[in-house]
Amino acid sequence: MIYKALTIAGSDSGGGAGIQADLKTFQMLEVYGMSALTAVTAQNTLGVHGIYDMPLEGIAKQIDAVFEDLGVDAAKTGMLSQPQVIELVAERVRAHGLERLVVDPVMIAKGGASLLAESAQDALREKLLPLAAVVTPNIPEAEVITGRKISTLDEMKEAAVCIVKQFGAGAAVVKGGHSEGAPTDVLYDGEQFYLLTAERYTTRHTHGTGCTFSAAITAELAKGRTLLDAVHTAKRFITLAIRDELGIGGGHGPTNHWAYWRDEQVKK
């Protein structure tokens, strides 16, 4: 059985985030990866030096081509910078009846560049979140989505409930990487809370962590794993990717997409 996952996101020329990170993650988790580019960025570990949006027709044709021939077991969205792009992606997701959709609400690059226009925030809430099986914001992204200040674990839980109950997502994972202490993520599946905690590693090489984490969830959902199992695997995948840093680039370097696979081989 070949499991297949689609990433609908921007391209990162530096290879640490975007579709490059997604495809690397899919491969390491033994899922066949496919992509639909929404934008091309000129980017490295020092920052984003240019953003070039794809034509809407080109985005639609990429998505349709993949669904109509190869099929999609699960998909994720990443950088959807403009409201018309979000509306188009939502429309194609509905048209193809995709249920396993992971929405990574990419808003700001690690170097600080804005990747989501303010005008697109309402489209994200109204058009895309209701189609998501799970949404994976970090704390700053969850603050934008919910309009709430988040500084405690209870406030993370409240934000997760808001994303599910108010905006219609199937589930939410509010990630704790921006909090103090051990990075604890809050998963709310509409009924229960689950807390996932890992050791914090101090490093500047964290570019693409959000993309990689959401891609790992997508890959595991494509295999038919439960959401809780998928999030557990993703948490371990990104923790190892941060711990075993590559140390490349002069700024916010990429995570290590080999780390999880290599750890699995050692266990064998």
TrEMBL record:
Domain Pyridoxamine kinase/Phosphomethylpyrimidine kinase: 12-256
Catalyzed reactions per annotation: 4-amino-5-hydroxymethyl-2-methylpyrimidine + ATP = 4-amino-2-methyl-5-(phosphooxymethyl)pyrimidine + ADP + H(+); 4-amino-2-methyl-5-(phosphooxymethyl)pyrimidine + ATP = 4-amino-2-methyl-5-(diphosphooxymethyl)pyrimidine + ADP
MF terms in GO: hydroxymethylpyrimidine kinase activity
Residue ranges the record marks as coiled coil: none
Pathway: Cofactor biosynthesis; thiamine diphosphate biosynthesis; 4-amino-2-methyl-5-diphosphomethylpyrimidine from 5-amino-1-(5-phospho-D-ribosyl)imidazole: step 3/3; Cofactor biosynthesis; thiamine diphosphate biosynthesis; 4-amino-2-methyl-5-diphosphomethylpyrimidine from 5-amino-1-(5-phospho-D-ribosyl)imidazole: step 2/3
EC identifiers of the protein: 2.7.1.49, 2.7.4.7
Taxonomic superkingdom: Bacteria
Xref: InterPro entries: HMP/HMP-P_kinase_dom, PM/HMP-P_kinase-1
CDD domains: HMPP_kinase
UniProt keyword list: Kinase, Thiamine biosynthesis, Transferase
Family: Belongs to the ThiD family.
NCBIfam families: HMP-P_kinase (TIGR00097)
Protein name, as recorded: Hydroxymethylpyrimidine/phosphomethylpyrimidine kinase
Underlying gene: thiD
